[in-house]
Amino acid sequence: MLASAMTTHLATQDDLARALALLAVQDPRLNPLLALTGMPALRRREAGFAGLASTICGQQLSTKAAAAIWARLTAALDPLDHHAIRRARADRLGRLGLSAAKIKTLKAIAGEIAKGRLDLAALTEMPADEAHAVLTALHGIGPWTADVYLLFCLGHGDAWPAGDLALQEAIRVAFGLTTRPTAKAMAGLGDAWRPWRGAAAHLFWAYYRVAKAPGFEALPAAATTTAEPARKTPARSRANQLAGAAKRKPAPSRANGSQGRAKPSMRRNRGTR
Question: Are residues 122 and 137 in the same domain?
Answer without folding.
Answer: yes
